Amino acid sequence: MFSKILIANRGEIACRVAATCKRLGIATVAVHSDADTQAKHVAVCDEAVHIGPAPARESYLCIERIIEAALRTGAQAVHPGYGFLSENEAFAEACVKAGLVFIGPPPAAIEAMGRKAASKLLMMHAAVPLVPGYHGEDQDPAHLKAEAANTGYPIMLKASAGGGGRGMRIVTRPEDFDAALAACKREAKSSFGDESMLIEKYLPRSRHIEIQVFSDTQGNFLHLFERDCSLQRRHQKVVEEAPAPLFAASRRDAMGAAAIAAARAVGYVGAGTVEFIVEPDGEFYFLEMNTRLQVEHPVTEMITGLDLVEWQLRVAAGERLPLLQDEIRQSGHALEVRIYAERPEKGFLPSTGTLSAFTLPAGREFCIGDQSGEPVTRIDSGFRSGDTVTPYYDALLAKLIVHAKDRHAAIEQLIGALADVRAEGVSTNVQFLRNIVASEAFRSGDVDTTLISRQLTEFIKAGPSA
How far is CA 255 from CA 248, 262, 328, 447, in A? Predict the structure, then answer.
C-alpha cells in the first residue's frame, strides 16, 4: 500500500479521499490555487502545495504543476477525484511517465470511453445494447440531418467528446435540426475543443440507471449494484438513490452483466460507472461509461458497507479486489442530494459570497454504511462557516446522504435532515430539494428523467430557496 498520495482536486471530494487515507495511515498532499489557500481540503491534508492562480486552467487543470508537486513532496500516487483532470488520458499518461501511480483506469481505457461515438462502437462489438442512432465519423451537416430522419424524431444531439449536459439538445422536429446542430457544435467546440456530434433516439419518460463496476490488475471484474439517477435538471443529476425503486432483480442481473462486459471491452481497471437509459418496458441501452469515481458514489457505499476509495487505493497498489461478486451484499436504502449555492427561483444562477454561517444536520462525516439497519446521516462537505464561495469553481457546498431500513424511512430522514441545513451569506437550493423529495411523485418511486422539468414550477414556487 502507498505511504503518501497527492490528491489532484479540491472541495468535498478531496476531503473525502483524505478521510479514507487518514483511516488507512496514508499521508496526503493537497494542491490549491490562490482562491483555496484557506480551504477545508488544504486543512485536512498533511501537506499542501500552491499550484497557481484562481482560474482552474491555471491551477487545477495544469498537469505540469500537479506532477511537479507530487514529485517534490515524495508522493507515490495521484488520486484525481472527479471533474478537472479525472478523465484526462494525458494526465494519466503524465503520471505514469513521471513514475507515479494514477489511481484510476489505464490511459487507454480513459481514451476509449472518452469519445462517446467510438465507445458506442466498442460496446456494439461487445454486445452491449445501444440506443438507436448514429455514431459515425461523417460529420457533414446534411448527413447528420439525414441520420436524424432515419433514427426518427424526437432525437438527442450529443457532443461526442462531451459530458455534464454541455453540447446536448433535444430536437423534436426536422425544421429545428439545423439551428440545434449549430448551437451544439458551438458549445462542444468551446467546452471540449471538439465539435463532433452523435445522434440518439430521444426516449422520453425513461429512467437513468447506472451500475458501479470494479476490476483489478489480475483480471477480476464485479459490480456493486445500481444507482437510480433519474432526477435530473438539464442533464445534471439532482437526487440519487440506491437501490433503484421498482427495479426487478432480473433486470439488475442483466444490467450488471452488461456493465461488466463494457468494462472488459476496454481492459478496465479500478472504479468505473456504466450508465444506461431504461425504458418503461424494461429495455435498457448503454449511454456512456464514466472512468472515475462518481459524485453519487456514497449511496453505493451506504448500502454495501464498502469504502470505494479504499478499493481504489488497493487496486491501484496492485492488490486483488477485496471481495468476489457473490460475497457482496446490499442492505437498506440510501438517498443523496447535492446542496448548491444557487438561486432556483432565478434560473439556478450561482450564488457567491462568504458563508457567514454554515450549519449541517447532525451526522457522520464521510462515513460508510454499517449494515446494522440503524438510520445514518452522512455529510460530505468541502465548506465550513467563514469560507467563501467563489465564481471560479463548481458551487457544490455539500452532499447530504441518508441510509435507512427502507425507501420510505430514508425519504423521511432526508426531509428532516434538509430542514436542519442553514447557510447564511449565500442562497442555496435546499428548499427546492425538500420540495422534490417530499412530493408524491418522488415518494411513489415511479420517476423518470423528465419529472423535474415537468414539475419545475411546482418544485420552485412551493417555497423560497434557503
Answer: 11, 10, 16, 19
* CATH top class, domain 132-201: alpha beta
Give the rounded distance of the alpha carbon of 208 from its chain centre.
13
**Secondary-structure class of domain 207-461 per CATH:** alpha beta
Q: Which of 2, 23, 39, 81 is nearest to 365 (CA)?
A: 23
In CATH, the architecture of 4-103 is 3-Layer(aba) Sandwich (3.40)
Which of 17, 100, 28, 78 is CA-nearest to residue 309? 17
User: At 164, is the pLDDT very low, low, confident or very high (cuts 50, 70, 90)?
Assistant: low
Domain positions in the chain: 4-103, 132-201, 207-461
Percentage above 70 pLDDT, the chain:
98
Give me the active site residues, please.
292
